[in-house]
Amino acid sequence: MRFLGINAIFHDPAAALVVDGEVVAAAEEERFSRRKHGKRPVPFSAWELPEQAAAWCLEQAGLRPEDLDGVAYSYDPELVRLDQDGDRREVPAHNGLQTGTGVDERWEELRTTYARRAPAFLATALPGLDSAQVRYVPHHVAHAASAGLAAPYRDSAVLVCDGRGEAVSHLAGHYRDGELTVLAAQELPHSLGLMYEEVTAHLGFQRSSDEYKVMALASYGEPRHLGELRELIYTTGDGGFRVEPVDWSGYAKALGRNDRAAQDRWTADHADLAASVQTRLEEVLLELAGWLHERTSERCLTMAGGVALNCVANTRLLDEGPFDGIWVQPAAGDAGTALGGALYLSHLHGEPVAPMTGADLGRGWTDDELAAWLEAARVPYRRPDDLADAVAAELAADRIVAWFQGRSEYGPRALGRRSLLAHPGLSANTERLNAVKGREQFRPLAPMVLAERAHEMFGRGPLPSPYMLFVHDVRPDWRGRIPAVVHTDGTARVQTVDRGTEPLLARMLDGFAARTGLPVVVNTSLNTAGRPMVDDPRDALECFGSAPVDVLAIGPYLVSRGEVFSS
Prior knowledge:
CATH topology of the largest domain: DHBP synthase
Distance between the termini: 53 Å
Number of helices: 19
Mean pLDDT: 91
Oligomer: single chain
CATH superfamily of the largest domain: Carbamoyltransferase, C-terminal domain
Low-confidence stretches: 83-104
């Protein structure tokens, strides 16, 4: 059976296709539209249908809309709270509850109306689709399915935590034999995700987009406001929590939102606020996980929701929490609810759902198609006998390489399909790559490492770690050898490379290690600030042409900046 999943309600519109219980395609609309997180001018940024992503998913499988057995829409408008007269009941606001788009709850009725009409919109976007095939899946149930059904574990506890869904911000439960039992859900306005968004905006970043910057900034500060935050943000002993109104200006002066000049004026106060909020988030998640473990006795925890992208918190949960293993769905944010919705319908119809085997679920091109793009762009290129070894030589010579290989990643992490690579042994490369990408200098870069050698360099944190969703302690004797990937707190967000599933990357790492003695390279996403990750060949050529990148490795071909700009 064939099920399409759709996310199109808050942000990160996406589509995913599951056929006979297996994930065959998944992509975010931003990779096609080039609008990061699917955002347009508010309020309409929340309601972009993933038309191109959905059409591509069907094309990838050779299907037409009428071939589908069902479409999952990961938001159920009937779950929005109503009053006795049937009108929408206003969610109590804490300083104007924000929705992830920067628009307050006055837009809630419009969003709900849009969701109710989504089946008709989808039938228009996908001619041939029967709108009666569209099934609403509650937002947090879709999140839970994206973790519990896609995980390598048959049974697991499941924890979902994000900004908000229809009326709640969190779900705790467990999966057994594919069936979800919900044990707790936290009603709005209390939300850990929205709380973190508020701090993100206060610190001058973009809410529901730049929360990872707060996590990075936290490493530079001390959690000196933790005592006060413990009184305002706390668990309730029943699987839920409370987030009381917080006056963030009492901790640090607000910086101008999305103002580059303002973002250069961060002080210790801002870092201390970030550290305090990050630490309190970790503590609350630990308490929620402890409650969940007591009631399920499961050995493993699966996680989804935007908060599950906080790799520092994930590592602390694994290190100090009660679970033996934690699996986080790599597209854990709202884009992942498209996958979860499709998996949910597949299981509902009796299909045995297969575990997710990788995040390489997006678009890819043949060698001939890539060559045609290069020819059309009149770009000089060559085809080395051994691309992996040729790239290793470029990296060893301290050149920055744009790496475009295979099918693109589903989710926010570059995992060796659409990556910028560099030499990790030169500390100047941290500043150099952040300058190439046009981003803040306090932000860390990630190491890509051969799985069988990762334990030599990295301690605390799970290994293997293929999805870059945990942090690891860098062993003291390696910190000076790979300074470009060591954060200020001595950690790194590691991606391990398995030879069996990523032979090209493994050969490149072998070649680099043979030349430098380092079985690890810098890996960061192939994009520049404010733009989605590169996805198709046009994107790759535009990024290569506009950013100071030395080499483009696209399929089996190499393009050198010197050759391009001297021709």
